[in-house]
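Running this now, will post back.
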Amino acid sequence: MKNKVLVVDDEQSIVTLLQYNLEQAGFEVITAMDGESGRDLAENESPDIMILDVMLPKLDGMEVCKQLRQKKILIPILMLTAKDEEFDKVLGLELGADDYLVKPFSPREVIARVKAILRRAQVTKEETSEKVDKNESIQIGELKLVPEQYEAYFNEELLELTLKEFELLLYLARNKGRVLTRDQLLSAVWDYDFAGDTRIVDVHISHLREKIEKDSKKPTYIKTIRGLGYKLEGQKEND
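Update: finished.
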């Protein structure tokens, strides 16, 4: 079975370039020229990955990404942005994008990124099936994670997490008690070199604390280990 790639860009030349090269690399390709059409294809055609331009008519790429994640459509998303466009990579990743590329880019680079993202997605599925039975969950204090459903609960209330927030929390939970550096977290959760921009990790940790800590200024779950990184701890019995 060929992996299906959805390409969404309003520049016909880019769509044609990507479609040709992706098909030559063995992918099935479907395309859209605006955000609304791209969102609808993502919902109805079940692509394995989406290449999504930031600046689009009808709905911009950020909004498309946001709407898909709100509907729990978790296909990997590679975002495209022009060099002179304002693009907040942290915001893009917070909304659920998996990676981004700045135009102009080479088709070879796009294909390499697509293969890397798909490879990581497959590894994640295999690890989940190997390590976690369908109904098995991870319980740490008032925090409960259900990996198979990509759901997390705190105090029995479902948390509204982006895909990356969930993956980061799951990685911390599976390594409970271990000190993890920011670079380790970047590599494990984002799986590519992000030019040492560990601010992405800090932003996601901050957002998680707001959702699972009673006092995000005095965290009892996700602890900062100064000069090293973070670790997730179970609450002490007297907490």
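The CA atoms of residues 4 and 173 lie 32 Å apart. More later if anyone needs it.
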